[in-house]
Write a structure and sequence with these properties.
The structure holds 2 protein chains of 2 kinds. Chain A is an alpha+beta fold. Chain A is built from 8 helices and 5 strands; from the N terminus they run H-E-H-E-E-H-E-E-H-H-H-H-H. Chain A: It comes from Bhargavaea cecembensis.
């Protein structure tokens, strides 16, 4: 019961909080693509893979008091951040253990900007294609973000780094 | 070879349609696509899944809907966009094909099936377009690249974003058809709006189709129709009950197969989905007729859970439900879980929380974190304004999510079970029934 909710709380707990809805969406998508068992269904939206189910789950977790949402006015936009509450820590107390590798992956992702994670997640969305076609797709769907070749290389290197981290 | 793209039928064909009166087909490509086995398969998939168990008229199929979406896009292109500078008429055929074929990859009882087997119908639509199929053969007669172009529109990766927006946006042909069609077949009075007006005031722009300011009230009506349809029809708690049972049937059959259970009716069509070895042929072979045949025969299986769940689905003995507030009642759920086990009722199959949530309209202003492309109004001075900035009605519901949680359980089993009566009574009193 509510295992999927518990997984999200565990994720945010391991991250010691996440700043940015977009960043959280992309981090969980990337973790899912790295074969961590998140069930949320993702579709391609403006900022890349996005899960309506995850948005709903996070809202529920806030309503339940397991997550605390903080809203910060940044002038031209509002930024949301999430952290696990004391009740949330109790809630995941009985949930099963998570693999150590998840914590390592989360740590690596958290260091990155949401723009970069948007690129990584969108490349992973097209991971059934050869590399040059993945890049071409990203340039089509993200034509206004003007990702450079260096960013593309860095994103592929990052995906490789995460994959090898899981294999260890 | 090249002529096939522009080839017209010697006489226009029409399909009588209860929503759009007539669906007009002049292009040979469209006519040939409709005749393919993959498109005809859509006749055997309900548009609204299990909703027919609540609204008995809702027997319409994805075939009807697909033709409807095609017709709306055809009217937009031929009547509203044609001849306008921002519309490239060379995109006409790819747009019409994408409209017609956008739901090709839906499986039987799509929502439940995708959930259990972790599938994505949009990906299967693309696989059908690109794989060894009759649809692919028709599309390839246009050009070798044409199947990929149609797949890119459906995958939202087509370079011309205006084309994508006609099939997939907050005011697209898909939604305009399903709202009206589902309203018609369910018989509800919601879901109606002035589509003719919206199509008349729709204009092509660089990124998406936009609506002339004078059409704002028609769009308000469309947004409100959608809002009402979601809560009155799509999230109806009784059809969700049927869907919960459907999910549990598929999960039970999967578990039994993994445990080596000997079925009286072997789940031949499901095997490759259970062990994740399915291919396109396996997927296309499935439809709701096949699933219903299995469910009917599985009523006579020895496994009590599978047999009971199938009987419930086929004979409409659905689960009862109560409102459930996860924030306040999650501990109650744990308690019920324990009591169900003690009473010999497996909560994995018989105690289910189901959540529905909808965002009627979402806006996006640069820099914010939301994920949807908004509806834009074309003002008299040529400026584009986001809809909720102009419409008080839309502003009132913009970005506001409504969520509903229900807890489903077999009340009849709890009331009529002969063993552990005290425990069952205790469960019923917690459930407040």
């Amino acid at each position: 019961m509510l295992q999927e909710h518990a997984k999200v709380v565990q994720f945010i707990s391991l991250a010691d909080g996440v700043t940015g809805r977009k960043k959280l969406q992309k981090m969980i998508y990337i973790a899912k693509k790295m074969d961590f068992p998140f069930q949320e269904k993702y579709e391609l939206h403006i900022y890349g893979p996005y899960s309506e189910e995850l948005t709903l789950r996070i809202e529920e977790l806030c309503e339940m008091g397991f997550l605390a949402e903080n809203c910060e006015d940044k002038g031209s936009y509002v930024q949301y951040s999430y952290r696990v509450t004391g009740e949330g820590r109790d809630f995941i107390g009985d949930a099963g253990d998570v693999p150590d590798t998840l914590g390592v992956c989360i740590g690596r992702m958290k260091e990155k900007s949401s723009r970069f994670l948007e690129l990584v997640s969108t490349l992973l969305y097209f991971d059934y294609l050869p590399r040059d076609e993945q890049i071409a797709k990203v340039h089509i769907v993200k034509n206004k973000l003007n990702y450079t070749d260096a960013e593309m290389d860095e994103a592929f290197a990052f995906i490789g780094e995460l994959s090898s981290c899981i294999r260890q | 070879m090249m002529d096939y793209a522009t080839q017209k039928l010697s006489e226009e064909k029409v399909f009588k349609d209860p929503v759009h009166r007539y669906i007009h087909v002049k292009d040979q490509v469209i006519w040939d696509l409709i005749a393919t086995r993959e498109f005809q398969r859509l006749r055997r998939i309900h548009q609204l899944g299990t909703t027919y168990l609540v609204f008995h008229g809702a027997e319409h199929s994805r075939f009807n809907h697909s033709l409807g979406v095609y017709e709306i896009v055809r009217r937009i292109i031929d009547d509203s966009f044609s001849g306008r500078s921002q519309w490239n008429d060379s995109e006409r055929l790819v747009t019409l094909c994408a409209a017609l074929l956008h739901d090709l990859g839906h499986g039987p009882f799509s929502h439940a099936f995708e959930k259990v087997f972790d599938l994505d119908h949009e990906l299967f639509t693309q696989k059908i377009l690109l794989g060894d199929t009759e649809v692919n053969a028709v599309l390839r007669r246009v050009s070798e690249e044409f199947p990929q172009k149609v797949a890119d529109v459906i995958g939202k990766t087509y370079p011309d974003k205006l084309v994508v927006s006609l099939i997939s946006s907050q005011i697209d042909a898909d939604r305009m058809d399903y709202l009206q069609r589902d309203a018609y077949f369910t018989g509800v009075s919601y879901g109606h709006f002035d589509m003719e007006r919206i199509l008349r005031v729709m204009r092509p722009s660089e990124e998406q189709a936009v609506i002339k300011q004078s059409g704002m009230h028609a769009v308000e009506d469309y947004i409100m129709s959608r809002y009402q349809m979601y809560w009155q029809v799509y999230f109806h708690p009784v059809s969700r009950s049927a869907e919960v049972i459907l999910v549990k049937i598929l999960q039970r059959a999967k578990v039994l197969s993994e445990e080596g259970y000997t079925f009286k009716q072997e789940p031949v069509h499901f095997k490759s989905f259970f062990d994740k070895t399915y291919d396109l042929t396996d997927y296309i072979a499935l439809d709701e007729y096949i699933l219903m045949t299995y469910f009917e025969t599985w009523i006579r299986e020895d496994d009590e859970i599978l047999s009971d769940l199938c009987d419930r689905f086929v004979n409409r003995r659905l689960f009862q439900y109560i409102d459930f507030n996860p924030a306040k009642e999650y501990r109650k759920l744990g308690e019920l879980d324990t009591l169900f086990r003690k009473a010999g009722i497996d909560p994995e199959y018989y105690l289910v929380v189901d959540s529905s949530s909808d965002l009627p309209y979402d806006f996006y202003r640069p820099g914010e974190e939301e994920e949807r492309l908004p509806i834009h109004l074309l003002m008299r001075d040529g400026e584009l304004r986001e809809l909720s900035r102009e419409s008080d009605i839309v502003d009132a519901i913009s970005g506001k999510r409504r969520t509903d949680h229900k807890l489903y359980f077999p009340e009849d089993m709890l009331r009529e079970g002969k063993k552990k009566k005290v425990l069952r009574q205790q469960i019923l009193s917690i459930l407040n029934t």
